[in-house]
Amino acid sequence: MRKGPRIPAPHPLSIPLQAAAAIAAWAAWLGWDQHRDVHPDGSQTGPYEAWQVIGLGLTVLALTYRAASRGHTAAAILGTTTGLTAAAYYDWSDDASGLFMIGVSLITLASLAGTSVLTLAITTSKHRPTRTD
Q1: CA distance 72 to 17
Q2: What is the pLDDT of residues 86-98, one digit of tens each?
Q3: Which of 52, 57, 95, 125 has the greatest number of beta carbons closer than 10 A?
Q4: Helix, strand or coil for residue 128?
Q5: How much is the pTM?
Q6: Cβ contacts of residue 84 below 8 Å, gap of 6+?
Q7: CA distances from 85 to 60, 75, 95, 127, 131 (A)
Q8: Distances in Å between the alpha carbon of 6 and those of 9, 28, 32, 77, 113?
């Protein structure tokens, strides 16, 4: 009989489900707004408002926290990054200049870094021994 702590096997659908949740979050917050605002001086902004991007960030934060706190570290990092990258690619791929790939690459790098740091913080705080003085 084996002694010691058991390491749970990762659920095979955790990464695709996390990716689907990230895609759904992108669609809910950013997917419906494709209109650029034209100002009186001729400049353009958009298509996203700041509150939409903040909402997406908070939703992704919650999704990543949920996955990481349940022990699905690969899903928290890879699933979220894959989902956001796929959503950004789909949403921005109609750009005729081809510069959308720079934005997609930045989304990939930022989400990979952010989810890695958050997941590391969650997993280390869960395993920190409590002091009994």
Answers
A1: 11
A2: 999 999 888 888 7
A3: 52
A4: coil
A5: 0.82
A6: 22, 23, 26, 60, 107, 108, 111
A7: 13, 14, 16, 30, 41
A8: 9, 38, 44, 22, 28
